[in-house]
Amino acid sequence: MFFVLKFLNLKEKLIFLSLIFLIFAIFFFLFYRIYLHQDYLIEGFKDYPLTFNPITAKNDAEQSIGKLLFRSLIKANGKGDYDFDLVEKITFNSSTKEYLLKIKDSYWSDGSLISSDDVIFTARMIKLDPENLYYPFLKNLEFEKIDSNSLKIKIKEGNFSEKNYLFPSLSFPILPQKVWVEINYYNWQTTKMDLFSVISGPYKIKKIIKAGQLIKEIEFEKNRNFFSEKLRFKKIVFKFFNDEKSLKEAFLSRKINTFLSYNFSLAEGINRIKISKIVLPTYFAIWSFDKNIIKFFKNYDFNFLEKSFPNLKTTNYFFDKDHLKFYSIASLPQEKETKLVKISTTTNIYIPDNEILEKILENIKVKIFNDLKINIVKIDLNTFQEKVMTDEKFLKEKTFLYSEKYGVCPNFGFIDYHQEIINDKNLKEAIESVKKDCQNKENFKKLSLVIWQRDLPFVPIFNLDMNYFSTFEFKDIFINSPFERFSIIIYN
After folding, report:
1. What CATH class does 40-50+203-278+467-487 carry?
2. Higher pLDDT among residues 184 and 200, named by residue
3. Burial of 379 (C-beta count, 10 Å sphere; 0-12/13-18/19+)
4. Which of 4, 310, 381, 408 would you call most buried, defined as having the most Cβ atoms within 10 angstroms of its Cβ?
5. pTM
């Protein structure tokens, strides 16, 4: 190739060599970006983090940060079950009805041992706040120290098996008592970033990039005191965006290489994408105290939705861990009326402001137009959640899309949230009896049928798998919460 130089003058030689240099530079840059950075995970989020504290975390971005920084006693294994993390051994004392836990020799990033004091302190702080994500799991547990690396736990109510109740309950992140004990719990949301220098998780924070008050990017590097397993990624970067359109644009421009969404249509136009499923035990239902509305939705066949939405399944209700699938309530024996009753008035259905949920409801709206006319009313997510959780008038007077995450073992949380409004003691007793033996498939079916046939203010319609868009190859993951994916993908 270079023999042509003898036929060129000086200026032409310089131009030729410059072009050759440019070609090699482009090739090296592509090689560097595509091949040498295969050990970098760059995740995009449609949320901005306001805290790094995993105990007060609200959205997926905040919870995912906590998952990288702090370990738990028990962690999700991606197969719909849990494995030991900080725990070395669990034994059950049948005479005292207590569980005895031994903690592994594990270390904080400053070199000190993680102790039973840290576990008990974190659990105690969580139980101060009924609004905390982990409160429903811990409210019936009593923790008592035996020594520095062992403790006992007693379940105050019920008789739950380890893997179906105790294990999910112990998946809360553990904080170092010595750092947080002097800080009032109600100030944990706004604590300074330097308090997160003492961590236990697989990664630690290396760099934070802000735009004004907003955190735009966080770079994580490996925590040298984390010895338990070989980590897949040398570096992890979280980048934060306003919406899903921005996520897709960042993926197309190679600014990120993974992101999570319910919206399957985001895959359009991306030819280098690999899509894994994040399977969550979550159902979406129509909630209304209008018995005609409930009757209509209970007797309508919504299977047509599955043709338009590849990650949607209609009325899937509970999870079979042995065979990694959901059982569908639609397959249960039930009495449906052969003729639908038309409703003449237009019904407002309130939904959280979410693109994919709006598309699903629009699909339903068109399909049922001749029998029921609906008007879709969007409310921003925070306001919507607040109304569903606390506004009794909203619950009694409005029709809305209700979503409930019930865990690998179905506890049907609407009973806990809205017991006074529903006021059905027998149903609560039925659920409590099934929670004692969550692996019994016949009990699953009986409970689902009881709920379906009861005169309750909601009708389960569908559940959605989340789509994990990535340039990496990941197996499908079965977990309780999206942020638990970081317990699995960083090793796979």
Report:
1. alpha beta
2. 200
3. middle
4. 408
5. 0.79
Nearest to 410 by CA among 311, 305, 283, 318: 318
Residue 324: the pLDDT is 44
- Amino acid 367: pLDDT: 94
Residue 238 pairs in a beta bridge with: 43, 218
Residues 6+ apart with CB under 8 A from 163: 81, 82
List, in order, residues 6 or more apart from 314 with CB less than 8 Å away: 302, 303, 305, 306, 328, 330, 461, 462
The residue type found at 200 is: S
Query: What are the tens digits of pLDDT across the range 202-255?
Result: 999 999 999 988 999 999 999 988 875 688 898 999 999 998 899 999 999 989
CATH of domain 281-464: 3.10.105.10
Average pLDDT over residues 111-130: 94
- Give the span between the Cα atoms of 460 and 451, in whole angstroms: 10
Q: Could you give the CA distance from residue 160 to residue 408 in angstroms, rounded to a whole number?
A: 13
Map out the domains of the chain as residue ranges. 2-36, 40-50+203-278+467-487, 60-180, 281-464
Q: Report which residue type is found at 266.
A: L
Between 327 and 155, residue with greater pLDDT: 155
First to last CA, the chain: 45
| 393 Cβ contact list (under 8 Å, min separation 6) | none
Dist CA 203 CA 67 (whole Å): 9
- Cα 84 to Cα 75: distance, rounded to the nearest angstrom: 6
- For the chain, what's the residue count? 492
pLDDT at position 133 = 81
Cβ proximity of 288 and 294 under 8 Å: yes
The domain 60-180 having CATH identifier 3.10.580.10: the answer here is no
The residue written with tokens 């997160």 in the block is 196
